[in-house]
Amino acid sequence: MSNQIYLDILNHDYTEPVYLGMGDYGKVYKTYSIKYEIFFALKIIIFYDNQDYVSGYNEGIILNYLSSNQCVKYILCFYQMKIDEKKIYIATEYVDGYTIYTGYQLDLITDMPKLLINLWEGLKTIHKYGILHTDIHSGNIMVLPNHDVVFIDFGLACPIHDNVSKQLNIPTCVYTYSYDMYQLSNCVLKLFKSNQIVKTIYHIINNDQLPGTIDDVLTYLYKYEMNI
Ligand SMILES: Nc1ncnc2c1ncn2[C@@H]1O[C@H](COP(=O)(O)OP(=O)(O)OP(=O)(O)O)[C@@H](O)[C@H]1O
Ligand SMILES: [Mg+2]
């Protein structure tokens, strides 16, 4: 899908927004562009200090970078960012799904292996673009009814490589890939409520070979870190 969409956000060129959710610093709305005949999500961040501003701005820049040529599976397609004196507006694709948190609460996750594979592939995709998410939790991953996943909320994301950092003019991360892997494992662990998940993940990423010991898993994670 192309992301060549020029919404006139500041002139309110869309239908009345419907509130979808909020976190610590932004509110997200669903709205409709009559011009392009699409629903889209509008995240509005009121910045009270420099930190709010930086995380909102970085989120827009990183999503724009991730969708710069075409929309990438596992990540929201970016449409536009606008900034006025008090607010940052980020328009992205609207996802008709639910967060992992809601999916768990309402028992909507029926195909756990598919979900796990998609989570794993999604995280690898973000990493291959040289970005760490650093805020992975059950409220920041959306699941579609077919169990495709979309990582949202890149407000704390950062470039891992110097070249991406220079290109985006955002400092590199203090973390490494394993930070995201740890957060994703934590999030998934809560779904299973059992350490069995560590073996399951290893099983998936190693094409059906079950690990003998936890050391095998750690060796794999170490190799992942070195080779990505
Ligand atoms: N593109 C989207 N399509 C549909 N729903 C969305 C979309 N983006 C966000 N949401 C909904 O809005 C909620 C808040 O979004 P998001 O996590 O980006 O906001 P936030 O204010 O940055 O939260 P946080 O406190 O985690 O930083 C999500 O949990 C999700 O339910
Ligand atoms: Mg969030």
Q: What do you see in this structure?
A:
38% of the residues lie in helices and 21% in strands. The mean pLDDT is 86. The protein is built from seven helices and ten strands. It has two domains: 9-93, Phosphorylase Kinase, domain 1 (2-Layer Sandwich); 98-226, Orthogonal Bundle (Transferase(Phosphotransferase), domain 1), CATH 1.10.510. It has helices at residues 50-66, 100-105, 112-128, 162-168, 177-192, 196-205, 214-227, and strands spanning 18-22, 26-33, 38-46, 78-83, 87-93, 98-99, 131-132, 141-143, 149-151, 158-159. Strands 1-2-3-5-4 form a five-stranded antiparallel β-sheet, with helices on one face. A three-stranded antiparallel β-sheet has the order 6-8-9. Strands 7-10 form a two-stranded antiparallel sheet. Strand 4 and strand 5 (87-93) form a beta hairpin. It is globular and about 60 Å long. The protein has 228 residues and is of the alpha+beta class. The protein binds adenosine-5'-triphosphate and magnesium ion (MG). The site of adenosine-5'-triphosphate has 21 residues, from strand 1, strand 2, strand 3 and strand 5.
State the CATH topology of the largest domain. Answer: Transferase(Phosphotransferase), domain 1
Report low-confidence residues grouped into runs of 5 or more: none
Taken as a percent bin, the fraction of beta residues is: 15-25%
Number of domains: 2
Helix content: 25-40%
Identify the CATH homologous superfamily of the largest domain.
Answer: Transferase(Phosphotransferase) domain 1
- Continuous helix count: 7
Shape: globular
Order of helices and strands: EEEHEEEHHEEEEHHHH
The profile of the biggest β sheet is: 5 strands, antiparallel
